[in-house]
């Protein structure tokens, strides 16, 4: 039986595909390559380039392959962009997911692991955040992810579609073996931006706000290694298969690092000079986001293998150093060998 991975050519999706293949799973990738990279997926993995709104292509995939479950990553995921263009976020994320769920139900595929986000909480009421805490997104991106979680809830009631929603905190790092990594255009995430500055591709790193109510005044985030996220997807799928019960989990290390601390770690890992420039706050940034992942630990047996920020940055740096232009560097166009 195969697993359909939507958005399997994206950053977290491609690492999960690699991880699943290493576990001996049969994987089918579906991606519109708007943000993803064909090269991030092994050549011999069945790959469908298409949009989630394309019902007939989805039906073809479901009828050609013996699919038992989907892992659904395909989505737009930039907070700032979502504020500027909510319609495209609702269209791509909510309406696209609605169509995927519709075609899954029609094709009798009743298990889905969903890529959700800490952005569903908005400004947190507690630190660390628990799954039962209030969900009140402060931007359209978080709203669309929450809307999909709610759709999955009701699809379970109505059609018996079982789901696990995984709410990631700050995904970072790269494949420890250096085969794939993070390559966004434009890049907006802190760690790759700092590493681009280390490579001289940017003159400096802007520190968005130094007057938050945190120890050094900069925002605190919970960075989690992308391969630990991949492992959590695998475990979520195993749990779905064995219990056939829907659930929601936070995924983070439970430890926060400020922007200044992350820059310090990047300086020590790279040994390069990285200039940091104080800049105004970025709209919509909560001061502190730290996960309680106790539930994932207890119920999925999930124990992050790379909780150390130094190691997360080392793996990201290894990728950036060897691929300063990301997937645009050399190699064939048609997938990882
Ligand atoms: N930051 C800077 N300078 C930069 C980039 C980021 O100071 O050039 C700061 C941000 O203000 C924030 C921290 O670094 O305080 C982390 O920013 P990221 O953009 O890397 O990540 P976010 O915490 O904003 O967003 C992440 C995910 C989102 C998700 C969100 C959940 O990327 O998809 O966590 O809150 F929605």
UniProtKB/TrEMBL annotation:
Catalytic activity: UDP-alpha-D-glucose = UDP-alpha-D-galactose
EC numbers on record: 5.1.3.2
Protein's recorded name: UDP-glucose 4-epimerase
Enzyme class label: isomerase
Keyword annotations from UniProtKB, A to Z: Carbohydrate metabolism, Galactose metabolism, Isomerase, NAD
Top-level lineage group: Bacteria
GO molecular function terms listed in the Swiss-Prot or TrEMBL record: UDP-glucose 4-epimerase activity
A Pfam family hit: Epimerase
Similarity-based family: Belongs to the NAD(P)-dependent epimerase/dehydratase family.
PANTHER family (alphabetical): UDP-ARABINOSE 4-EPIMERASE 1, UDP-GLUCOSE 4-EPIMERASE
Matches recorded under CDD domains: UDP_G4E_1_SDR_e
Organism per entry: Fictibacillus terranigra
Signal peptide stretch: none
Subunit (UniProt): Homodimer.
All copies of domain NAD-dependent epimerase/dehydratase, residue ranges: 3-252
Cofactors, names only: NAD(+)
Lineage summary: Bacteria, Bacillati, Bacillota, Bacilli, Bacillales
Pathway: Carbohydrate metabolism; galactose metabolism
């Amino acid at each position: 039986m195969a697993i359909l991975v939507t958005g399997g050519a994206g950053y977290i999706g491609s690492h999960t595909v690699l991880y699943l293949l290493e576990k001996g799973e049969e994987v089918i990738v579906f991606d519109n390559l708007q943000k993803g990279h064909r090269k991030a997926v092994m050549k011999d993995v069945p790959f469908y380039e298409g949009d989630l709104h394309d019902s007939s292509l989805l039906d073809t995939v479901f009828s050609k392959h013996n699919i038992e479950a989907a892992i659904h990553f395909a989505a737009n995921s930039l907070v700032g962009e979502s504020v500027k263009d909510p319609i495209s976020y609702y269209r791509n994320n909510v309406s696209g997911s609605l169509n995927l769920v519709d075609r899954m139900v029609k094709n009798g595929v009743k298990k889905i692991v969903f890529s959700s986000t800490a952005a569903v909480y908005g400004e947190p009421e507690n630190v660390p955040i628990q799954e039962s805490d209030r969900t009140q997104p402060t931007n359209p991106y978080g709203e669309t992810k929450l809307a999909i979680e709610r759709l999955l809830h009701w699809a379970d009631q109505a059609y018996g579609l079982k789901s696990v929603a995984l709410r990631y905190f700050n995904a970072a790092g790269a494949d420890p073996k250096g085969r794939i990594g993070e390559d966004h255009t434009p890049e907006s995430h802190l760690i790759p931006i700092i590493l681009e500055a280390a490579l001289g591709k940017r003159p400096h790193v802007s520190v968005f706000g130094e007057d938050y109510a945190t120890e050094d005044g900069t925002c605190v985030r919970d960075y989690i290694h992308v391969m630990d996220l991949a492992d959590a997807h695998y475990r979520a799928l195993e749990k779905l298969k064995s219990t056939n019960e829907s659930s929601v989990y936070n995924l983070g290390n439970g430890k926060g690092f400020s922007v200044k601390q992350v820059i310090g770690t990047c300086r020590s890992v790279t040994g390069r000079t990285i200039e940091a420039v104080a800049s105004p706050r970025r709209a919509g940034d909560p001061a502190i986001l730290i996960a309680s992942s106790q539930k994932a630990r207890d119920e999925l047996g999930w124990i992050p293998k790379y909780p150390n920020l130094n190691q997360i940055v080392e793996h990201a740096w290894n990728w950036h150093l060897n691929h300063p232009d990301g997937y645009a560097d050399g190699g064939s166009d048609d997938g990882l060998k």
